[in-house]
Amino acid sequence: xxxxxxxxxxxxxxxxFGHALAGLLDVLLPVDCAGCGAERTQLxxxxxxxxxxxxxxxxxxxxxxxxxxxxxPVRQLLLAHKERGxxxxxxxxGEALGRAVRSALGARAGAAPLLLVPMPSTRPAVRARGHxxxxxxxxxxxxSLRRAGLDARAAPLLRHARPVAxxxxxxxxxxxxxxxxxxxVLPRARRGLAGRQPVLVDDLVTxxxxxxxxxxxxxxxxxxxxxxxxxxATTGRPxx
Length: 240
Description:
Largest sheet: 6 strands, mixed
Shape: globular
Strand content: 15-25%
Number of strands: 8
Distance between the termini: 24 Å
Order of helices and strands: HHEEHHEHHEEHEEHE
Structural class: alpha/beta
């Protein structure tokens, strides 16, 4: 059963004030579960349990781990947070992302302070949605890692250096060509980051082309990321 729409303005219609109002309504008004449509709760106990007990594992990129397969209810939860402004879902989704970070790092998780680097959203996408979902998830993941005793912070270091074509319908090789050289590191990126271990984070990995391009951009700036983590993966991840 598809989730009922949240009773807030569509993201494309939101101004900064509208975004704040949407967040307030998200808290005050009862909505249906974004994962399964259960009534009067944005995240029902069953969907919360499914997200919390998913076992992280490697994706098509062995250095990138995902918390769960891209299947319902996780798929619906990600879409609700990203496209429908269900901001309260950032907490549980961020906790899942934090578990994927620990899985990707393994024994290195506590070796150095962590720097979670979210995949950048384009400015038109942020304006249309009314928020930056990946940056929000990175912040939530960093908070969950700190609660677990790890030194972690999130920082938006990456930006788009040039426009890219819509990735829909492109295969892995085409996505790689489309994205090559598309990302760069902000000039201020090095400030205050000495000694931190960069980890790329995103909501979803499909072919891995975006993460690979982000890793290239960080490496070129002298900030090599040896691990990446996502909430979900479409393929290449154990389903057990």
